[in-house]
Write a structure and sequence with these properties.
This protein folds into three domains: about 160 residues, 3-Layer(bba) Sandwich (FAD/NAD(P)-binding domain), CATH 3.50.50.60; about 100 residues, 2-Layer Sandwich (Alpha-Beta Plaits); about 80 residues. It is about 35% helix and about 25% strand. The protein is built from eleven helices and 17 strands. The strands form three sheets. Strands 1, 2, 8, 9, 10, 11 and 17 form a seven-stranded mixed beta sheet that branches. Strands 6-5-13-14-15-12-16 form a seven-stranded mixed beta sheet, with helices on both faces. A three-stranded antiparallel beta sheet has the order 3-7-4. A hairpin with a 4-residue loop joins strand 14 and strand 15. The chain is globular and about 60 Å long. This is Lycopene cyclase family protein. It comes from Saccharopolyspora terrae. Keywords: Carotenoid biosynthesis, NAD. It holds the Pfam family Lycopene_cycl.
Length: about 400
């Protein structure tokens, strides 16, 4: 019997498996294709990555921001090298099982993971790292989620110089794509994905219902054409769609981790850096729970949840979800003004709010400073949106082109 079975072979699952292995636990990793690579581009502020992971990344010295005017943030921004990260997290003593987990049964001495083909794997603790699917943590919520969607084209560095030069990227540029006619605003995100390539991406930060990928592709094509970039020069395309406001799963015998545990930041979509940082904490909690004074699988699972969501981090998460509700309530023309105010906040407030590990007090200070800085028209919407209950749908339409 394995001490820990990790379900899901993405960055969060691999991080959990490697950390548990390093802590001396017997680990099995289950995934439909455990040796496949990761196609998505993962970005993070460099100072939020573990140092050994930051060293494997492409780092930009500064990023550009634009709400209603231009700004430069001299905070290093990193894009992970997926191949190097996979190799970094691989452990020879982690048993890999190819399969799809569908359920878990629990008893006083451990759990049994049930695979779709009928196989059963014994474990002390099961970790669910299946991302938004949350295969073993209650599945998808019943309500339609707010989703981040994006379409990006990879071009060579010389082609991308119209948007960002050497050593720099674009975090958010809310200027409308040319020939955009109404609808929910989107922004340009541009990052270096290697020494000679740049990802140029048209992004909808969060919307319910989500903006269609076809609309984002048209806006991106118009933006690049206006800069003299031929769509045929693209080297590849990336498509993004994931929820940003899922409720946290209930604590139980399965320990959710990564996006399955609600790590996705509603203001940025980031989750991988937090998973990489929290993985050793999770491993220590599970190891201590399995071998502590009152050892047992239930103790270990409870300890795992508590180290991922201590009360103050949970309180900060609730505040950020309220800010997302306020953002979703804004009419399209006020969104760039909202972010213009955010971009002009003192750096400490920006860092605190964008961090997945920020304190509730720091998050509240940042939100208060932002509220004081936005125009009155935005304040009114923030109050109404932030105090609303339920899951409001977009009231201003997808519209436009």
């Amino acid at each position: 019997m394995a001490d820990v079975v990790v379900v899901g072979g993405g960055p969060a699952g691999r991080a959990a498996a490697s950390a548990c292995s390093d802590a001396g636990l017997a680990v099995t990793l289950v995934d439909p294709a455990p040796r496949s690579g990761w196609a998505s581009t993962f970005g993070s502020w460099a100072d939020e990555l573990p140092p050994d992971v930051a060293a494997l990344s492409t780092v930009m010295d500064r990023v550009h921001l634009h709400g209603t005017s231009s700004h430069v943030w001299r905070r290093p921004y990193a894009v992970l090298d997926n191949t190097a990260l996979w190799k970094h997290l691989w452990r020879a003593d982690v048993t890999e099982v190819t399969g799809r987990a569908v359920a878990a049964e629990h008893g006083p001495t451990g759990s049994t993971l049930i695979l779709k083909d009928g196989r059963r794997l014994a474990a002390g603790v099961v970790v669910d790292a299946t991302g938004p699917a949350r295969a073993l943590s209650g599945g998808r919520p019943a309500h339609p989620p707010a989703q981040q969607t994006a379409v990006g084209w990879i071009v060579d560095s010389a082609t991308a110089e119209a948007f960002c030069g050497p050593g720099e990227g674009v975090f958010m540029d809310w200027r409308s794509a040319p020939r955009t006619r109404g609808g929910w605003p989107t922004f340009l995100y541009a990052v270096r994905v290697g020494p000679d390539q740049v990802l140029l991406e048209e992004t909808s930060l969060a919307r319910r219902p989500a903006l269609p990928l076809a609309l984002l592709r048209r806006r991106l094509a118009g933006r690049l054409a206006d800069a003299g970039i031929d769509p045929e020069s693209r080297l590849g395309e990336e498509r993004v769609r994931f929820p940003v406001d899922d409720p946290l799963p209930r604590p139980g015998r399965v320990v959710p981790f990564g996006a399955a545990a609600g790590f996705v930041h509603p203001a940025s979509g980031f989750s991988v850096a937090r998973a990489l940082r929290r993985a050793p904490w999770l491993a220590a909690a599970l190891s201590g729970g399995l071998a502590g004074v009152t050892p047992g699988p239930a103790t270990a699972a409870r300890a795992g949840w508590q180290v991922l969501w201590p009360p103050d981090v949970l309180a900060a998460h609730v505040l950020r979800q309220r800010s997302l509700r306020a953002l979703l309530s804004l009419p399209p023309e006020l969104v760039p003004e909202f972010f213009e105010a955010f971009f002009t906040l003192p750096e400490a407030h920006r860092i605190e709010f964008l961090s997945g590990e920020g304190t509730s007090a720091g998050t509240a200070r940042a939100m208060s400073a932002l509220f004081a800085r936005v125009p009155w028209s935005v304040r009114r919407r923030i109050v109404l949106g932030g105090m609303s209950f339920g899951h409001p749908a977009a009231k201003h339409g997808l519209g436009g082109s």
